Amino acid sequence: MLKKILVTAALIALPFGAAQASSGVPNGKNIYAKNCASCHGIDGTVSKFGKDLKPFQARNHRAIAQVVSRNEMRRIITYGVRGTGMRAKKYALDPLEIEAVIDYIQTFDYTPNLANGKKRFEQVCISCHGVDGRSQTGLGAANLVYSKLDLEDIVHTMRHGRSGTLMKANEHQLSNMDINDVAHHVLSLRYKADLKHGQNIFAKSCKSCHATPRDIKLIGNAAQKRSISDLTDQLLDLRIRHGRHVKRAGKGIKNLSPDDVKDLIAFIRE
User: Fold this and answer.
1) In terms of CATH, what superfamily is 114-188?
2) Pairwise CA distance, residues 139 & 137, whole Å
3) Based on C-alpha coordinates, what's the Rg of the chain?
4) Under CATH, what is the fold of the domain 20-103?
5) What is the pTM of this model?
6) Are 60 and 106 in contact (CB under 8 A)?
7) pLDDT in tens, 131-172
8) What string of H, E and C letters represents the secondary structure of 92-138?
């Protein structure tokens, strides 16, 4: 009995790190210090050695810690990045150690610089997306104002581009800080629908036929199998602007601006 008490007391007295090590749980900070810090710095800020790497300097981990998915971090650590100094760690670290490194990276934080984000957006993005993000440039770029991508998806698109479009990868053209800053600037351009305005439009232009949004019935192909909730915003926009009801609804519908339609859609969905 005395022996059990002494063992228990000894375990309680162990430092947290030692107890963690004895439990078999990898220490992400220690693994990061041994395998990553020489290039990326122990706190995720690039070291002098990392800045001197060719052809591309090491990436700042602080700026991507909260905006790059765990799956992507795992892929990069496991397989490396071709054409850079980032080598595959799959032979040096086991899967649990890689997860522990990701846990440690995700403790980093970064405060985005919106002024820099706006500046870099104007330097790199406006030729396709326009200075206001509405993409009225004739190049078919996505309208960023109405985009539904979250921050992580915006960052992924900026880093890796979008296959089959003019959107090219910017992971070597922009630093991780630039990418984070631009992504937050893009979010700041996002249109925030006005439900009250949408309700007013509905009352003025739609209510004579549809007492409430719930009363809207689809017509045409596959209408019996779909409802308003099944339509994307793009398809719903198309039906509002060009559906068979337009002649009955009159100029009120024809003269709606894109923002008006977004307000109306937001109210219909609400």
Assistant:
1) Cytochrome c-like domain (1.10.760.10)
2) 6
3) 26
4) Cytochrome Bc1 Complex; Chain D, domain 2 (1.10.760)
5) 0.81
6) no
7) 999 999 999 999 999 999 999 999 999 999 999 999 999 999
8) CCCHHHHHHHHHHHCCCCCCCCHHHHHHHHHHHCHHHHCCCCCCCCC
